[in-house]
Model the fold of this input.
Amino acid sequence: MKEILMKYMEKYTTLKEEEQQAIIEEIVIKEFNKGTYLIKQGDFPTKHCFFVLKGCVRQYHVEVDGKEVTTNFFTEEQAIMLVNLEEAGQASNYSLNCLEDCVLVVADVESEQEVYQQYKGLESMTRRMREAYLIHAQHEYAKFIRSSPEERYKAIIQTRADLLQRVPQHQLASYLGITPESLSRIKKRMQ
Done:
């Protein structure tokens, strides 16, 4: 699993290989069973961020009427950094739930500062990772807003086809902003 992380780090860092190796040796990797919540809506935000080495994590919230709205799926080689963006002292607006057995890197935000002091290049690497994530998220959001439901489904087929096999249809439909029945009709039209 650590080789996956090493490969990912190489995209964003100028750290020497021995520094990368030392950082990886300090990283905490944990296994989570399918169904485990990393955080629940209404809980106070965790001081952790996560990186998916294996598995699928769903981000969603429950609206006042009880409807679940899926806002993201995190799979291999994706960072789950959003938990750090909640305002201090305010309950989380969403839940993170493992849809599969998962292997995650678990980083503590407070101890991150100590590691930054030890490895100066790590902070700039983390900044580049976050910038890349934000650029990607903004691009995906803009594309989502201007797309029809059928175009959104086609985009999933092209960019994240694995989700079609990994997540229940009703959750995929929610992620696409449509009903499960609409998703079924789109699938039939495309066949």
